[in-house]
């Protein structure tokens, strides 16, 4: 008799799962159409990835995308597959892709009510060496009655209807999180060509023992990151040090963090003060998945999902993972921010327009009395002498320094106003400052 133990006659496919969820929510079926089309695109990309060597799909296509990354042949193929499948689902009206400078507006006769933000092939720098890569997506509803435009995608991550990613590794897995449910994992069964539910309501560990970040940028790290890494490598309580794992593909690094616990970091630094990863189609979807699994996702100063985007390709710092690990990191950030909220990154630029003499630093910095609550602190990028960084610096050609500005007193509203004053350059004559990243909710004009 044939052994049937390996065959489940009542498997839960992705389509079945989404249809059941939609029925409970009394949906129209449009969301199911969208996910089915997305699954088809993921299956096609998975096949292309596995055949890439034979089909001559490795290598650079000879261009860069809108965010400056080199475009690989598989990038272009994946982007075309995703956009065509989403358009033909009759469920989308706006598609934001990493590979397109502007949002793709779906033709009027094919429009639906959903907005999709997607990175068709994350980790493309790893394609040629066969390291795991993936697809990241976030789905929103259109909330305005006007004609669709890229502005419709500028919603905070809290508005996500669903988000997730596909991982093309030793197997192809699709991880889906929805606003009404938890995190569920589906494995592609190539024998039947369907995604099968393999893990339901996934939860991240409260604390892990792995940290993940690119330590090649250590010379650019701020003191908080440096201290956190030291604590993980050389624990003072006698516990075992954390293991370091970094692949360079966000999908692979975050999926490992979800499965094993720990912390993933791509923080702001002096080289990338805005962060490196994109908010709409990388950080928001991953933050949504991690939070739904019981973890935390933050910039270091605010929850990723609370950020109101200003641009479809906006970059932000990101730290996410097990709640205890992220909280420990945030405590260190808080300590280095003077123990208070209201810290922002910025660029202090001292130009030749300032009168000759040593650049003034310190609490007052020449600000009007009403604005002397700001304290500028240089981030160890030049010699220090007590509290006066670079005391002998003479102004000549334009010089730039990355600074951190912290307000230690005042109501939340006053702190926001001071942040905005700082960002709009209310500093001594000849000294300009631009804030990174934007402070959500700060008015552009204050007085």
UniProtKB/TrEMBL annotation:
EC code(s) of this entry: 3.1.3.11
Reactions accelerated catalytically: beta-D-fructose 1,6-bisphosphate + H2O = beta-D-fructose 6-phosphate + phosphate
Enzyme class: hydrolase
Superkingdom: Eukaryota
Residue ranges occupied by any Fructose-1-6-bisphosphatase class 1 C-terminal domain in the UniProt entry: 204-332
Gene Ontology biological process terms, A to Z: fructose 1,6-bisphosphate metabolic process; fructose 6-phosphate metabolic process; fructose metabolic process; gluconeogenesis; sucrose biosynthetic process
Biological pathway: Carbohydrate biosynthesis; gluconeogenesis
Fructose-1-6-bisphosphatase class I N-terminal domain sequence ranges: 12-199
One GO cellular component, as annotated: cytosol
CDD domains for the chain: FBPase (cd00354)
Protein name: Fructose-1,6-bisphosphatase 1
Organism field: Cairina moschata
